[in-house]
Automatic annotation (TrEMBL):
The keyword ATP-binding does not apply. It comes from Rhizopogon vinicolor AM-OR11-026. The keyword NADP applies. Keywords: NADP, Oxidoreductase, Riboflavin biosynthesis. Pathway: Cofactor biosynthesis; riboflavin biosynthesis. Catalyzes an early step in riboflavin biosynthesis, the NADPH-dependent reduction of the ribose side chain of 2,5-diamino-6-ribosylamino-4(3H)-pyrimidinone 5'-phosphate, yielding 2,5-diamino-6-ribitylamino-4(3H)-pyrimidinone 5'-phosphate. One of its GO terms (biological process) is riboflavin biosynthetic process. Belongs to the HTP reductase family. InterPro entries: DHFR-like_dom_sf, RibDG_C, Riboflavin_Biosynth_HTPR. One of its GO terms (molecular function) is 5-amino-6-(5-phosphoribosylamino)uracil reductase activity. It catalyses: 2,5-diamino-6-(1-D-ribitylamino)pyrimidin-4(3H)-one 5'-phosphate + NADP(+) = 2,5-diamino-6-(1-D-ribosylamino)pyrimidin-4(3H)-one 5'-phosphate + NADPH + H(+); 2,5-diamino-6-(1-D-ribitylamino)pyrimidin-4(3H)-one 5'-phosphate + NAD(+) = 2,5-diamino-6-(1-D-ribosylamino)pyrimidin-4(3H)-one 5'-phosphate + NADH + H(+). Residues 32-256 form the Bacterial bifunctional deaminase-reductase C-terminal domain. This is 2,5-diamino-6-ribosylamino-4(3H)-pyrimidinone 5'-phosphate reductase.
Length: 261
């Protein structure tokens, strides 16, 4: 599919950095190239009341997201998204005759191992339709959760321990280093709200370096209201960013904005 004479693949190639052409290839920056991307309403909401899934993206921007997935080694979501949406994190919206054979690795941030063993990600892996999910948990996992770990591993998940903060969040720089060590050179972060906020806050703390290479936001022409879930809660003014604008593109009914931090 093309938008304004430019194919989605051409658009993504023009905005996404390529491994080997980035400073993170320097030995001092052992982390993947990170793309933070999500869809939001005009009033800045990414989910409905209580985190309920909202289909905000139109057909064209949804297809862009699925093409974007094929250009990354792994896709990361938080446990809230995994439980509320039961996502597949694949490229099924790309027509089969065009669909690349590459399947991205699903990665779930799940400090306390709450992921369901019958979720679509694990079922797809069991049926040979998806890659083995990696579940990132607290490196100092509560011994009471050992049964949860065994259940997920028996269902096919690979459980990886990473240090977490006193507030219970996985430490983002340690996470990125671990993923890089396991061979992930490009990472697409899709949400939800807590994960988006954690990456933005950590990127502010890391300045003048950054942990986000590209930010791609799809804005849908709809309003959700006060009960919807946003992603800026808890971010102070000092933790917000002045974005370097890269491109703005109309895709169907949506506006896609690309920036760099």
């Amino acid at each position: 599919m093309s938008t304004g004479g430019e194919s989605v693949k051409e658009f993504l190639s023009s905005v996404l950095p390529v491994p080997g052409n980035s400073r993170v290839e320097d030995e001092r920056f052992q982390r993947p190239l990170v793309t933070l991307t999500f869809a939001q309403s005009l009033d800045g909401k990414i989910a409905g009341k209580g985190g309920k899934q909202l289909i905000l993206s139109g057909r064209e921007s949804m297809l862009m997201t699925h093409w974007m997935r094929t250009k990354h080694d792994a896709i990361l979501v938080g446990i809230g998204t995994a439980l509320n949406d039961d996502p597949q994190l694949n490229s099924r919206h790309i027509p089969e005759h065009e669909r690349p054979s590459h399947l991205p690795r699903p990665v779930i941030l799940d400090a306390s191992l709450r992921l369901r063993s019958d979720c679509k990600l694990l079922r797809n892996y069991q049926e040979g339709k998806g890659r083995r999910p990696w579940v990132i948990c607290d490196a100092n996992l509560n011994p009471d959760y050992a049964g949860r770990k065994s259940t997920l591993e028996n269902a096919g998940a690979r459980v990886i321990g990473v240090k977490r903060t006193s507030l219970g969040f996985i430490v983002i720089p340690d996470l990125l280093k671990a993923l890089y060590t396991y061979g992930v050179k490009t990472l697409m972060v899709e949400g939800g709200a807590a994960v988006i906020g954690s990456f933005l806050a950590e990127s502010a703390r890391a300045k003048p370096s950054t942990i986000i290479d590209t930010l791609i936001i799809t804005i849908a022409p709809t309003l959700v209201g006060d009960e919807g879930v946003g992603y800026g809660k808890g971010l102070s003014t000092e933790q917000t960013h002045s974005l370097k604008h890269i491109r703005t593109k109309i895709m169907g009914q949506d506006v896609v904005i690309v920036g760099a931090l």
